[in-house]
Amino acid sequence: MKRLGGLLAFAGVVVPGVTTESRSFTVMRRRTRRSTLIGVALALCALIPAAGWSQQIIEPHMPGWEQFFKIEWEPGEWRGHPVVKGYLYNASPKTIGEVQLLVDALDASGGILAQKVSWAAGSPMAPFSRRYFVADAPLVDIAPQQPASYRVSVYSYSEILAPRGRGRGF
């Protein structure tokens, strides 16, 4: 690029009124605008959880789970973290595979402060059997409030179908 007395010659084209200085100033202004826009967008994204948009109440995926399962649990602590531990009973004639538990941290009036979904680890549950579990309790984001109690429910589960036997004529 050559500067020709207030004109910019670029690839053989002379653009009147554009100098090298004004072009670099325009590029810097665009970069500043772009970085400001990115900063504002990031600030708005950071405000989304504070506005409560991500605070949806989680409900069990399997309505009616109470007819197939019974849960006995108690609050506890494991390595300095709050947990709930107890037994999950399979009260159905079906073999159950993976089970997810929903743990709600409740305030004194029964309102939900926080929720967490945890796996109940273990092998498949035979019909009418039980499984011991330890599930992480949800941490409450609001510092002065501590959960008065917890509520544990079955969030989801999978059934294991028995293979078809031989000699049935199918």
Q: What report would you give on this structure?
A:
By secondary structure, the chain is α+β, with helices and mostly antiparallel strands. The chain folds into two domains: 46 residues; 96 residues, Sandwich (Immunoglobulin-like). 16% of the residues lie in helices and 41% in strands. It has one helix and nine strands, in the order βββαββββββ. Strands 1-2-3 form a three-stranded antiparallel β-sheet, with no helix packed on it. Strands 4-5-8 form a three-stranded antiparallel β-sheet, with no helix packed on it. The chain has a three-stranded antiparallel β-sheet with strand order 7-6-9, with no helix packed on it. The longest helix has 28 residues. It is elongated. About 4% of the residues have low confidence.
Percent strand equals: 35-45%
> Radius of gyration, Cα only, in angstroms?
31 Å
Q: If classified by CATH, what would the architecture of the largest domain be?
A: Sandwich
For the record, give the distance between the C-alpha atoms at the N and C termini, rounded to a whole number.
84 Å
